[in-house]
Amino acid sequence: MPVNILLTFVIGSALGWVLIKITRTPQHLHGLVIGSCAAGNLGNLLLIIIPAVCEESNSPFGDKQTCSSNGKTLVSLSMAIGAVYIWSYVYNIIRAYGDVFIVNGISKAPIIILNYSGKSLDMFTEKEALLQSSCSSYEDFEALNDIYSEVEDLNSDFGDDERKVTMLTRSKKHLDIFIDRINLKMWSTPSTIATIVGLMIGVISPIRKLMIGDNAPLRVIDGSASLLGQATVPAMTLIVGANLFKGLTKSGIGLWVVIGILVVRYVVLPLVGIGIVRAAHHVGFVGSDSLYQFVLLIQYSLPPAMSIGTITQLFEVGESECSVIMLWTYVVATFALTWWSAYFMWLLS
Fold first, then answer.
1. Cα Rg, the chain, nearest whole Å
2. φ, ψ for residue 101 (rounded to 5)?
């Protein structure tokens, strides 16, 4: 399953990259489009779909109770792995492209960047071009011009001392820049911490026996977490609805971008997923458990993850555009996900 989910992200990202090239999507929305094509809703939607499928009288997955128990286990693993991928991959993609802001309808990059090669501090863009694209009034022009004057003075002073910089200092500076770019703070998000703790409990046998089971001494912790989890599913569904409502407002995203995301998520990815899962089953990487294969297949046909909306709000880039994408992908998911679920069950029965 970790490999299967990774493939959905990799293939979806590649298709998203092709989409932004074809539709000429604005640069600050590149991360949003790629993330929407790559990351599916691997959590609360599957928690609703899989138990419902198991309860059907003509389900191809056998006994209802066994199916429901195994299904929740598979969905929990899917949710945990998906959370790690989203907050380590999609988070950084949206963050990287979010460095380009929109000011007064004109694309503007940050004023300066530190190009630390041991020789100089370089300006990010030409002074006059940046001033013209960034300033809406004479006062703004004067303020920004003063900033450039200070930076130029800093560059002249830096030239005398640059030869004194040691190799250790340079290495430390490169390391700081690298850490800042990958932003390790993503590992402190609640979903990532919960995933790590959950995997530790599941893998380490003494801890698992202490907390899981009818006779476990600390089973109250497991019971409380289960009770909170059951309330989280409808709460997340309400949040989905609230985010979709924002999609009714005006947005700058193009129609063909939305159509392209729909094609990627509900046509191309499911077809690719069928080929991958069937091939993996043929060579022995995936067993004959039909429920397991169903979960692997449906991971390719899900709408974009709602966490993408949270990430865009964190960086304040593409929020309204994200709401439009979520609105239409979830509207179409009503039909597409139903059709693909039925087809996958027919394929496995």
1. 24
2. -105, 165
